[in-house]
């Protein structure tokens, strides 16, 4: 079978019923937009998470059926129902709600526009969404001029909404994948640590380097520095598995600082880095973007890993003053650790 037939060299093509029309006929132009969307969706499907591949393929097939309806001529084809598309949209939104998407990606809140780019699949789906929106605008104009079926407009509108929800789902799946990779990497790091499994029971990750006596020395050192600068602080020390080992709230320290100090310490030990460095890695486009949505972590300064012989044995978290004051107090405690 040859690719070229020369039958369209005069600027004409056939509708489904065999009738000939110019290639710039409204039905052909609209199908050009839809055809573009089908192709872009193919690229999205190629990079999509497994849970979305079948949905995207079914959408491609639906759009191809819609193209047959547009170019049907005198033949009859069933037009996809708006209600069925709304059911698909509702089903996806139950799994991937808009409000969570706003928190994870920070693109829907505060009046901001969608900024694609969380994954290649999500980005390609948004391209397909804009193509279908373009098709909808063209169909609306053609329907007003009574050269295309007006029933196409709401269908195209719901199709673009459906593609948008698929893009949200793709962004979520990518976010989960990245967090899973981070967790797995941290678990591998934990395996390298020499835990004493007998001290805390079989299988318990119990530190043989961080103990109450050592943790209290860090707390005392931090409290001393906090008193020197005149800021009441909350100080928390955890072992390398994130278990709270020592805790102190100085008189007058803010209640909210109790939770924050522990979170800072656990964040520092979980990611093996100071929390002020984490802050730079959770910005859009950075490796840990999205991690800020984890309510158990604290991604601003005041938490530092505690190391011994180059290995992380725990972490200290300080809260109560400005970020700079919290970091100053924590650093002071670390600076005198050599005396311990």
Draw up the topology in text.
Layout: E1 12-14, E2 20-22, H1 26-47, H2 50-70, H3 82-95, H4 98-105, H5 120-144, H6 152-192, H7 212-229, E3 234-239, E4 244-249, H8 256-271, H9 275-281, E5 303-308, E6 311-319, H10 323-335
Antiparallel strand pairs: 1-2, 3-4, 3-6, 5-6
Structure notes:
By secondary structure, the chain is an alpha+beta fold. It folds into two domains: 174 residues, Up-down Bundle (Hypothetical Protein Ta1238, Chain: A); 128 residues, Haem-degrading domain (Beta-Lactamase, 2-Layer Sandwich), CATH 3.30.450. The chain has ten helices and six strands. It has a four-stranded antiparallel sheet with strand order 4-3-6-5. Strand 5 and strand 6 form a beta hairpin. The longest helix is centred in the middle third of the chain and has 41 residues.
Largest sheet: 4 strands, antiparallel
- What is the first-to-last residue Cα distance? 82 Å
- Structural class by SSE content: alpha+beta
Using the CA coordinates, give the radius of gyration: 29 Å
Strand-residue fraction?
5-15%
CATH class of the largest domain: Mainly Alpha
Number of domain modules: 2
Architecture per CATH nomenclature, i.e. the level-2 architecture of the largest domain: Up-down Bundle
Average pLDDT for all residues: 84
Overall shape: it is elongated
What's the total helix number?
A: 10
Sequence of strands across the biggest β-sheet: 4-3-6-5
As residue ranges, the low-confidence spans are 107-111, 194-207
Order of helices and strands: EEHHHHHHHEEHHEEH
